[in-house]
Design a protein that fits this description.
Elements: H1 19-24, H2 29-37, H3 40-61, H4 63-95, H5 100-151, H6 162-173, H7 178-206, H8 210-238, H9 240-253, H10 256-264, H11 268-320, H12 326-372, E1 388-396, E2 406-414, E3 418-423, H13 429-436, E4 444-449, E5 452-453, H14 459-464, E6 466-469, H15 480-485, H16 492-502, H17 504-509, H18 531-544, E7 549-553, H19 561-574, E8 579-583, E9 595-600, E10 603-608, H20 610-616, H21 619-633, H22 643-654
Parallel strand pairs: 3-8, 3-9, 6-7, 7-8
Antiparallel strand pairs: 1-2, 1-4, 4-5, 9-10
Helix pairs in contact: 3-4, 3-5, 3-7, 3-12, 4-5, 4-7, 4-12, 5-7, 5-12, 6-12, 7-12, 8-11, 8-12, 9-11, 16-18, 20-21, 21-22
The structure holds adenosine-5'-triphosphate (ATP) and magnesium ion.
């Protein structure tokens, strides 16, 4: 019968794959290439190295438990062998001629040895089991921490790369937990090898032909087990993109963040349908694997059964031909059964090691790829306070994107200035801010800090000098205070100041536990904030840091008019002696900036101060007049919000293109 074979070539990519199609045929050619390289033979040659690596993780996790796991298991294996030899010592006198009491008496010492050996083995196995059980959580803790150490240090680009995300998912989903399993299975391999050596020794002594016959009985089974394990692994690996999508859908179906819109936009049916469709594909794939595995196993067991029949036939022939006495044949039958069970254990544990090794290699592959994405060691020791930041000919495209988000940008920010970036949605303002903050590295051109290229600077040292009010700020599930101080030590005066400048003070006053209130409703006594209240907290976060350069990316998009006015005043006040890079669509608020850069499709199309830009009548003047007109023609204001901010607020609510 021809076994169904897995396609090695990736299916041609459809023009616009629907998410569920993405998982039906994996489009990740690199993975398939790697799979081709992880054939059973290739994996078997890699196994010793994988086992070695798993052991180094175990050794680092806990030396005593690692040594105990190996030592006690090996000792248990030795006692199994001793027991086996002792059993042959029991059988031989029993099968030889003579009166029964004498035969039993002759067998007694060996019988005592059997009992002793198996009792010792039981004790040793209990000890080994304890050591193994202790080792597992320790190894898992180590691999988990290693994974998160990498995920929190790698360059931000990694998170925009879907292939890397797949690798990370596989490592998190299962790979990181398999090191301990590789170790356990590898120990089983070792111990069963010890008992097989003993059984093989007994058989070799009894008759040389029995040994190769015995090997024949277990090889088909072993092959089938390894093949089945590989099938399951390949299928699971292929299903990774779909599983990630399912995971994301599941998150939307069961998360607080999406719960309101899910209901408001009656998304339930759509999401459940999508989830079901992907689950159906996954189920069909796994059922197909189960069917193929059954066929493979049946074939393996069938071939193994035939080989066993041949072995016993050979034994019978030897007996009939008088080449083997009955006593020896009886011992041989027992040794064959013992060896067979040890060999099955060996093959089972080999296949388990092989399967865990496949998943563990996902973890290793992630570690390798993530290590390549770690920032290079700093080459420059620039620690001086900011004098000037300059961008020259900066070109940057996000991973996998053909069109650069920034295309030859030059800007200058000098100490003490307020520099503004303006431009329409998608023009590249936030991208430029992220590059200046050292979160991404330009593909060409340079960004310098006091003349030193920031690409060579220590990223943490650079980030320590920059305060960032992010456009897409994070709502950390931490206390209100921690949401502002972040990793820094709390400094009461600075905290109060940042809260006052941003308006976060009013937010905290209204919280049940003040600064200690947990800002996450999912936890006991947790509180939630309104969009604008959260934005005040995010602004306070940027202002709290005693930074040379404050980057404020759309800090007022959700603020009420009074809070907006207060924040812009704070930013200008903050600039005294410091430096601010301000990104905003509220053009009235950038009038005071020392210099304004206007971006369009990733290029600086105009720059200068407000008067110059208005005089030259370009994009800035057009956008500014639009906002001013809207104010003039708009509904009368109900209260005085201050001259500057009032220009932008009505428009901000009416023109989606200019707000967020
Ligand atoms: N992580 C990303 N991966 C791929 N493309 C991205 C990513 N982030 C932004 N882009 C693209 O880069 C371009 C510039 O985006 P950017 O966020 O810098 O615009 P922006 O000027 O800040 O816009 P807005 O006013 O809406 O905040 C856009 O075309 C956007 O689609
Ligand atoms: Mg932006």
């Amino acid at each position: 019968m021809r076994l169904p074979r897995r396609k090695r070539k990736p299916a041609p990519r459809p023009p616009d794959p629907a998410p569920n199609e993405q998982m039906a045929a994996s489009k990740y050619a690199p993975y398939l290439d790697e799979l081709a390289a992880t054939s059973i033979w290739h994996m078997s040659t890699r196994l010793p190295r994988l086992i070695g690596l798993a052991w180094t993780w175990a050794w680092r996790a806990d030396r005593t438990d690692t040594a105990a796991t190996i030592g006690l298991n090996l000792a248990a294996g030795v006692f199994t062998a001793v027991g086996l030899f002792a059993v042959t010592g029991v059988l031989e006198p029993l099968f030889t001629g003579g009166p029964t009491p004498e035969r039993v008496r002759a067998a007694l010492p060996s019988l005592a040895l059997v009992a002793g050996a198996y009792a010792a083995r039981a004790l040793l196995q209990a000890g080994a089991g304890w050591a193994q059980a202790r080792l597992r959580p320790q190894v898992e803790r180590l691999t988990e921490l290693h994974l998160f150490d990498l995920t929190s240090r790698i360059g931000l680009e990694a998170f925009d790369d879907s292939e890397f995300n797949d690798t990370m998912y596989r490592a998190r989903d299962r790979g990181q937990y398999e090191a301990a399993q590789v170790i356990t299975s590898a120990v089983d391999v070792l111990t069963s090898m010890v008992s097989i050596t003993a059984a093989a020794g007994v058989l070799a002594v009894l008759h040389p032909v029995l040994l190769p016959l015995l090997a024949l009985t277990v090889i088909p089974d072993g092959w089938a087990a390894a093949r089945a394990a590989r099938m399951r692994y390949e299928r699971i690996r292929d299903l990774t993109p779909g599983r990630r999508r399912k995971w994301a859908l599941g998150d939307m179906l069961a998360s607080r963040d999406s719960a309101a819109e899910l209901r408001a936009f009656t998304m339930r049916g759509f999401l459940i349908d999508e989830y079901t469709r992907i689950s159906d594909i996954e189920r069909a794939a796994m059922l197909a694997v189960a069917r193929r595995q059954t066929v493979i196993r049946l074939l393996g067991e069938g071939a193994g059964g035939v080989a066993t029949a041949v072995t016993y036939a050979a034994l019978g022939a030897l007996l009939v031909a008088g080449a083997m006495p009955l006593a020896v044949a009886g011992t041989a039958v027992f040794a064959i059964r013992t060896a067979q069970s040890s060999l099955s254990t060996l093959l089972f544990s080999l296949s388990a090691t092989y399967e865990s090794g496949l998943y563990f290699s996902d973890f290793l592959e992630f570690s390798r790829r993530a290590a390549q994405r770690l920032p290079d060691a700093p080459t420059a020791r620039e620690t001086a306070r900011l004098a000037a930041v300059r961008a020259r000919g900066v070109v940057f495209a996000y991973p996998g994107e053909q069109t650069p988000a920034l295309d030859g940008v030059d800007i200058d920010i000098t100490r003490g200035e307020v520099v503004a970036l303006v431009g329409e949605n998608g023009s590249g303002k936030s991208t430029l801010a992220r590059l200046i903050a050292g979160l991404y590295t330009p593909q060409s051109g340079s960004i310098t800090w006091n003349g030193t290229d920031i690409a060579g600077m220590d990223p943490d040292a650079l980030r320590g000098r920059i305060g960032l009010i992010n456009q897409e700020y994070t709502q950390w599930p931490l206390s209100a205070q921690r949401n502002i101080t972040m990793s820094a030590e709390a400094d009461g005066t600075r905290l109060e100041e940042a809260a006052r400048l941003s308006g976060a003070d009013e937010v905290v006053t209204g919280l049940a536990y003040g600064w200690d209130t947990m800002l996450d409703k999912r936890f006991v006594d947790g509180a939630d904030l309104s969009g604008g209240q959260w934005q005040r907290i995010a602004s306070a976060r940027g202002l709290y840091r005693d930074a040379d350069l404050l980057i404020a990316d759309e800090p007022t998009s959700a603020l009420d008019a009074r809070a907006e006015k207060r924040l812009f005043e704070s930013l200008h006040a903050h600039a005294q002696g410091r430096t601010v890079l301000l990104i905003t669509h509220r053009l009235a608020s950038v009038r005071m900036a020392d210099r304004i850069y206007v971006l369009e499709k990733g290029r600086v199309v105009e720059h200068g101060d407000h008067e110059n830009l208005m005089a030259c009548g370009g994009l800035y003047a057009e956008l500014f007049r639009m906002q001013a007109q809207a104010y003039e023609e708009g509904a009368p204001l109900t209260h005085d919000t201050g001259s500057d901010t009032a220009v932008s607020s009505p428009l901000a609510e009416k023109t989606p293109g200019l707000t967020h």
